[in-house]
Design goal:
Blueprint: H1 7-17, E1 19-20, H2 30-54, H3 62-73, E2 87-88, H4 89-103, H5 108-121
Antiparallel strand pairs: 1-2
Helix pairs in contact: 4-5
Biased composition (Basic residues): 31-41
Biased composition (Basic and acidic residues): 1-30
Region (Disordered): 1-56
Length: 134
């Protein structure tokens, strides 16, 4: 049976688990672009392997065979395309609050208290520690 969560716990989990696309592109296009980038990477890996194997066709020559074995052993491993992770919701909210305070849209002391509240409710994952966000 699922444990019932309080609204405060739900908000804390939301700040930590939910993500926002801050990469600068249309977030809706990511659905297509991620699949396309993976597809293109796998296609180039298959193409490279096919080129190496097609060179092995024909009669066996001792000199060519030794060179081919050497090329196969030092062949480049297929590279892997990886998506940059989106920003945690808590980090995103805190950064927008900091921008509001910096631009003078709202009182800096009030925004600092809000940022501190968001920071307390956000469990920062290891991917986001490189960024300074408050």
């Amino acid at each position: 049976m699922k444990k019932r969560r309080s609204p405060q716990e739900k908000k804390r989990l939301s700040y930590s688990k939910d993500r926002r696309n801050t990469y600068g592109e249309n977030d809706k296009s990511s659905r297509r672009n991620i699949a396309r980038n993976k597809r293109n990477q796998h296609r180039s890996d298959r193409h490279r392997e096919q080129q190496q194997l097609s060179a092995a066709l024909g009669p066996v020559d001792e000199v060519v065979e030794a060179g081919f074995d050497e090329r196969l052993t030092r062949a480049r491993r297929g590279s892997r395309w990886r998506k940059f992770p989106d920003t945690q919701l808590g980090l995103y909210v805190a950064s927008t609050l900091a921008v509001r305070a910096r631009k003078g849209i709202s009182i800096a002391r009030t925004e600092q208290a809000r940022i501190e509240k968001v920071r307390r409710n956000t469990e920062v994952d290891g991917l986001q520690l490189r960024r300074k966000w408050w």
